[in-house]
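Thread: "does anyone have the structure for this chain?"

Original post by V.I.:
We have the sequence but no experimental structure in hand. Need at least a predicted one for the grant figures.
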Amino acid sequence: MKKTLSIIALSVIGFGMVSCKNENKETATGTETAATATDSAATAAPAPMGDSAAVAPASEQTAATAASTQPLTTIALSESNFDFGKIKKGDKVQHVYEVTNTGSNPLVISEVKPGCGCTAPDFTKDPIMPGKKGKITLHFDSTNFDGNVSKYADVFANVDKTPIKLTFTANIQP
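Reply from O.Q.:
Generated one for you, tokens below.
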């Protein structure tokens, strides 16, 4: 009986340690990948320790799945990175990233997920027809920051490589 309990306890502890290592690895590397409908089943098995790909959280899987149900198209961004320069602490700023559907199918942006609560997105919710433009606006609240900051938002759409990472930087002055 003691032997059985010991084995169960060691198994639980071992599983917990492996889970923590994978979680820490995701946090440390900053690696995020979006799951597609075809690799959803693969998320049941843990990734090998040497693998740099991380399993996407459920909300990213949902967004990626929603975008992947549409026929694929291609996208062009006016820019993927923006520098606000020097701004005063407490300023609320925004930047509009323009997207153009360069493919032959409607472009559907299913979600724009910011990396933190200080950034709020707005985006074109209607399908963007081929050759037409849409917008993704990132609103940033600098209240809780000092100095140089770098933030991002992941864009999920019916394009080949998703998420698309939009970034911005700012130098927050007192």
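V.I.: this helps a lot. The longest strand covers residues 147-157.
O.Q.: and Residues 9-60 have pLDDT under 50 and may be disordered.
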